[in-house]
Amino acid sequence: MYIIVYDFGTSSIKTCLFDIGDDIKLLESATAEYGLYISDDGGAEQDVEEWWNAVCSTTRELFSRSDVGVEKIGGMAFCSQMQGTVLVDEQGNALRRPMNYLDQKGYREYRECMGKGIIKVSGCSLYKLARNLMVNYSGSVSAKDPVWKYKWVEKNEPEVFKKVYKWLDINDYLVARCTGRILRTADSAFATFLYDTRKGKEGWNKGLLKMYKVNPGHMPEIINSTDLAGTLTKKAAEDMGLVEGIPVYGGGGDTTFVNIGAGCTRPGDTHIYVGTSGWVSTYLDHQTVDINAMITGVLSAKPGYFNYYAELETAGKCFEWVIKHLALDDVGIYLDKAYINGDVESRLTSIYDYLSDEVSRVPPGANGVIFTPWMHGNRCPFEDSDAAGMFFNVRIENNARDMIRAVLEGVCYHLRWLLECESFKVRTSDTVRFVGGGALSKVACQILADITGRRIETVNNTQEVGAVGTALVVAAGERGVDVLELARRLVSVNAVYEPDPSKREIYDRNYRVFKKLYKANAALFHEMNSEDGR
C-alpha cells in the first residue's frame, strides 16, 4: 500500500512516500521551508500560503523522482506541529496569519483569566483549574495555550473575530484545504483543553467553553485521527499534482503519532524526541496529570490510550542557533564553506555531524560550562515565558567547543529533568527510545544515555518517526488491524547506547547546578524580559 504523509514541523515540511507491506519502506521524501515570524510582542506567526506552496511543491517533487504513479496512492494524512490557532471563514479561508505554538501574545489575556482568585495553584485560579482537571485531567496553565491566542484575537482584532466561522489547528486547516470539510481531530481538540475526555462524554465541554467565554459556534465537528476525513478535491489535486478522490485521513499532531513510529506501544514505554522542540513521553492506558510540573496525558491516535507528555520548547532549535551563531573560527568552520549542495535538511545534517564530532573532543561536563535551553521561554517543569537561554560558568580558558558541547548537554539535562518529573507520577521504562533529528548524532545519543543513566535505543527513519507513525495508522485503518500491534511488528531498533558509569559523577554535579539556575535567576529573567520588569 502506498501512502503519502506530510510531516509538518515548525519551519519546514517533509513529504514522505511510504510502501507498507510486510515491512515499512520510505521510498522517497522531499522537503521545503516556510517562515516563522517572531515579533517583539511575543508573537510567532506563519503564512498559510507558504504552507500550501510547500505542500504542493514537495508533492510534485516527490513524484518527479518516484516510479510510483499517483493513481496508486491508497491514502494520505498530515502529521503536524500542535497548539496552533487558525481562524477560518465558512469557505475554510484563513482570516489572519496563523499563530504558532510558540506564540505568547495572549499573556495578558491569560493573566486576566487565570491569575485571578483567592486560592491559586502554579499561579492559576484553583477553581478554574479544578473544573478543567475534572473534565480532562489538564488545564490551560500557559500563555502559549491556544485559548489565549483565540482570546487575543477577540480582544485586539475585533473586525477579524467577527468573521470567524471555525477555530482550527494546523492539521485541521490542511485537511480542510484538501477535502473541503472543516473538522477537528480529537487530539487537536484536546490540545485546546476545552475537550472532555471522560468515557461516554467525549467532545467539546459546554461548561469549559462558558468558563473561558469561547463561542461554541466556533468549535468544529470532531473526528478521530484514524477516521476518513474526506477525499482529495479536484482543485487540491490539481495544485498538488495528484488525482482527485484520494482518501484523506484525519491525521493529527506530532505527539499523537511519534510514539507509534518509535514503536513505544505498550503502557510504560517511554520515548524522547528532539527536533526543533523536544519532549519526553510515556505511553499509558489511563490518563493522569501533574499540574505542578505542567505534564498531562494527551490523546493517542488509538482511543483509550494517552501520551504522558512533558515538553521542552526549544531543543534542536538551540543547536540550530549554535550552527548560525557560534560555529565559527574556533572550530575551524565557516558556515558558507560548511554548507554542502542540496536542501536545507542535508546542509544542517552535515554541519550537525561535523559539530557533533567536534564536541566529542571535549570532556564530559564541557569543562565546567552549563547552558540553559530556554531560548523562547519554558513550559515544563516550570512555566515561564520570561526564562531564557544562558551560558553559566564561562572562564577565560573555555572556548567555542566547550560552549557547543554545553548546548547539547544542556538540552539533555533538561530532558533528564522531564524524565524524572514523569517518574514521580508514572512508571517510565528503563530503556528509552530516542527519536527525531537529534537521534542522528551518535555523540548526542551517548550523551543522553550518560546524563539520564538510561539505556538508549534508536530506530530506523528517526527523522521521519512522526510520519512513520501516521503511515502506520492509515495502513492499520485500511487493513482493519490494530495499529499498536502493527507498529510493534514493523518498527525495528538500529542501535543501542549504554550509560558510561565513569561519567556519572561529573554529570550529576552539573545537573544539580543546572536545576538550580532557573530558581536563582527567575526574578532576573522577569526584570529583563517582562513588561512588568521594564
Q: Approximately how much beta-strand content do the residues carry?
A: 15-25%
Write down the Rg: 22 Å
Largest sheet: 8 strands, mixed
Q: Segments where pLDDT lies below 50 for 5+ residues?
A: 329-348
Number of E-state strands: 27
Structural shape? globular
Number of contiguous helices: 18
Q: Structural class of the helix and strand makeup?
A: alpha+beta
Query: How far is the first residue's CA from the last residue's CA?
Result: 58 Å
What is the spatial order of strands in the main beta sheet?
A: 20-21-22-19-18-25-26-27
Average per-residue pLDDT, rounded, comes to: 90
Helix content: 25-40%
Please tag this protein with its features:
534 residues; alpha+beta; five-stranded mixed sheet; 27 strands
Descriptive overview:
By secondary structure, the protein is of the alpha+beta class. 38% of the residues lie in helices and 21% in strands. It contains 18 helices and 27 strands. Strands 20-21-22-19-18-25-26-27 form an 8-stranded mixed sheet, with helices on both faces. A hairpin with a 5-residue loop joins strand 4 (37-38) and strand 5. The protein is globular and about 65 Å long. It starts with a strand and ends in a 5-residue tail after the last helix. The relative contact order is 0.12. Residues 329-348 have low confidence and may be disordered.
Give a quick summary of the entry.
The chain is an alpha+beta fold and 534 residues long.
Fold topology:
Layout: E1 2-8, E2 12-20, E3 24-33, E4 37-38, E5 44-45, H1 48-65, E6 73-80, E7 86-88, H2 107-114, E8 120-121, E9 124-125, H3 126-136, H4 146-156, H5 158-162, E10 166-168, H6 170-179, E11 183-185, H7 186-190, E12 195-196, E13 203-204, H8 206-211, E14 221-223, E15 228-231, H9 234-240, E16 247-249, E17 252-253, H10 254-261, E18 270-274, E19 278-284, E20 289-290, E21 295-299, E22 306-312, H11 316-325, H12 335-338, H13 344-359, E23 370-372, E24 390-392, H14 400-425, E25 431-435, H15 442-452, E26 455-459, H16 465-479, H17 483-490, E27 493-497, H18 504-529
Parallel strand pairs: 1-6, 6-17, 11-14, 18-25, 25-26
Antiparallel strand pairs: 1-2, 2-3, 4-5, 7-10, 8-9, 12-13, 15-16, 18-19, 19-22, 20-21, 21-22, 23-24, 26-27
Helix pairs in contact: 10-16, 11-14, 13-14, 14-15
